[in-house]
């Protein structure tokens, strides 16, 4: 890895070098949204883009850092805001999220069922300790964009989130986002 420095662009963004680009469309999110009917209806109309992340995976042999940028498109499936799949880090490894643009929420959970939610607004950071599964949600009307930084060689565990989700759902209320319990959730 060589050193680099990046300025914020005029739009307040960073253009990180990326080794991998992953886009998740509605069809990649089957089973993730609480309202299965709304999901099916939207998918029948269009397989829309939900989020993209650009990753630079550290491949050196010292204690480097991996990093990336995630952009979540605004919108809802039923009343549930667009979100990432979410995962646990299967091996030890904490993570930092730094918000660049938009308005988001960070949902956290432990395997024992403890849940926390944090606001993500431009310039703010969130610290995610090992053991806390994490998902981000776009609760605004604009794209929600943040940087993530994590130690390399982490195994990302998507399986338990895929099965049971998070304890909390982030829904569109009459005057903004509201949190509701997830009826499908089980600790595990
Ligand atoms: C890496 C990390 C983020 C996410 C990205 C996409 O450990 O937490 O870079 O990978 O925001 O979300 P997922 O991976 O849940 O699809
Ligand atoms: Zn992570």
Total count of helical runs of at least 4 residues: 2
Report the sheet with the most strands, covering strand number, pairing sense and barrel closure. 6 strands, antiparallel
Structural class: mainly beta
> Segments where pLDDT lies below 50 for 5+ residues?
none
Please tell me the total number of domains.
1
In round numbers, the mean pLDDT is: 95
Q: Approximately how much beta-strand content do the residues carry?
A: 35-45%
What name is given to the CATH topology? Jelly Rolls
Helix-strand string: EHEEEEEEEEEEEEHEE
Q: Would you give an account of this structure?
A:
By secondary structure, the protein is mostly beta strands. It has a single domain (10-181), classed as Jelly Rolls (Sandwich), CATH 2.60.120. The chain contains 2 helices and 15 strands. The chain has helices at residues 36-45, 159-164, and strands at residues 20-25, 49-56, 66-72, 76-77, 80-81, 88-89, 95-101, 104-109, 115-120, 125-128, 133-138, 144-150, 156-157, 168-173, 176-181. It has a 6-stranded antiparallel beta sheet, with no helix packed on it. A 3-stranded antiparallel beta sheet has the order 9-8-11, with no helix packed on it. The protein has a two-stranded antiparallel ribbon with strand order 4-5. A hairpin with a 2-residue loop joins strand 4 (76-77) and strand 5. The longest helix is centred in the first third of the chain and has 10 residues, at 36-45. The relative contact order is 0.20. The model has no long low-confidence stretch (mean pLDDT 95). The protein binds fructose -6-phosphate (F6R) and zinc ion. Zinc ion is lined by residues 87, 89, 95, 134, 150.
